[in-house]
Amino acid sequence: MKTQIKYLPLIITLFLFSCFKNQEKHYENTSKIPVSREMVAELTSPPNVPTPVGRRNAKKLIVKMEILEKEGEITNDVRYVYWTFGGTVPGSFIRTRVGDEVEFHLQNHPENKLPHNIDLHAVTGPGGGAESSFVAPGHEKVFSFKTLNPGLYVYHCATAPVGMHIANGMYGLILVEPEGGLPAVDKEYYIMQGDFYTKGANGERGLQPFDMQKAVDEKADYVVFNGKVGALTGDNAITAKVGETVRLFVGNGGPGLVSSFHVIGEIFDKVHIEGGKQTNENVQTTLIPAGGAAIVEFKVDVPGTFILVDHSIFRAFNKGALGMLKVEGEKNKKIYSGEIRDDIYLPEGPGIQSMPTTDEIVESEIPAKSFDEQMKFGKQTYMQTCFACHQSEGQGIPNAFPPLAKSDYLNADINRAIDIVLHGKSGEITVNGEKYNSVMTKQMLSSEEIANVLTYVYNSWGNSKKVVTTSMVENVKNKK
Ligand SMILES: [Cu+2]
Questions:
Q1: Measuring CA to CA, which of 138, 166, 221, 230 is 20 to 30 A from 437?
Q2: Is 121 annotated as a binding residue?
Q3: What is the pLDDT of residues 44-93, one digit of tens each?
Q4: Centroid of ligand 1 to alpha carbon of 327 (angstroms)
């Protein structure tokens, strides 16, 4: 007790002194910003970011980054050997402020196979640090740099073959906050796109080696956020509540592809273009170069699931560049009503009041009698109706439309197949071991057309050669 009182005047003086020191002056030349004390940097794995810098003074900041080469899953049953900064793709997020003196410790784990190094775009100096950080397995290299320019920067490995090291996941982001820090927001997340090149095609199972030729040709098998398909979907989605402000630190590691970053159903209130000082407002899609970044900010006004995509859209729906932001809270019907009505729109003729139901579809006058005729008419219907989704050879599209060729699901139950074409199908199904969870709308076809098209499907592409008759379709129809 006594000693505490004795030191009280000293404590008060120190307190006042530190308050005074926080009234930091503005330095035109950021290389002159003095550093006080030493501090170990907090590093985080994606999609998390370290605590904001706020108003803290510039410091000597110790960053310890461990390189790990490790096997992971790029998508279901597809394995890949990732090379990582800190054990994740993208690598650990580094958060600094302008004027910090970063003492960088690059550690190459003794069980790794290769030497690596690091090029930080936030560094002013040869190779962005690469020249002084080349480190063999079982070694640690130390170098230091002063952060002169505020902004969001990419870091990556720059060891030959550079493209291969980046393609295997060796990239991440380092943020240099301006004096006084970034304005406070409710939620901050770390997202980074990357393209992957595997020996096997997209979805081919097993451990997939890196494919140099595909990488050179920039023919990516996977384009993903945060290192793998689904890193930000379902239970891994990022979240916010209605009314909150969200800041996304978005980077693009490449190595090959430029990202057209977009959030479906949301407008970016503010974007720090290319991660720099200049901001744009009311942006729909922002371009993020390979080896570049952007800070994206918006307020979420309505609940729902907002889909993050690379708007080069096949990458999103076929190669994995798709994430989710789930927003919970009160609906706001003024901002977004939801579906109000589903009216009939039939511009052709007056007097048509409703869509014909399958019961009302007029049966053709001359029914196909022979098997050959059924096949001929069935193929026509297939090419007009089913082809768009199930594809010309019934092969389907992975993750979207199940195959009809050699389909165990189709061949197992003929009445169920008739029912699907009559009434449509939604919900999870498994076809040839692959799960599909999508929607097939009901097809506006007559019973005879359904009989023909299914006969065609059953007698093509290695299926079970059943014949479907009009009366079989009628039976299924009348059961309901
Ligand atoms: Cu490397």
A1: 221
A2: yes
A3: 999 999 999 999 999 999 999 999 999 999 999 999 999 999 999 999 99
A4: 37
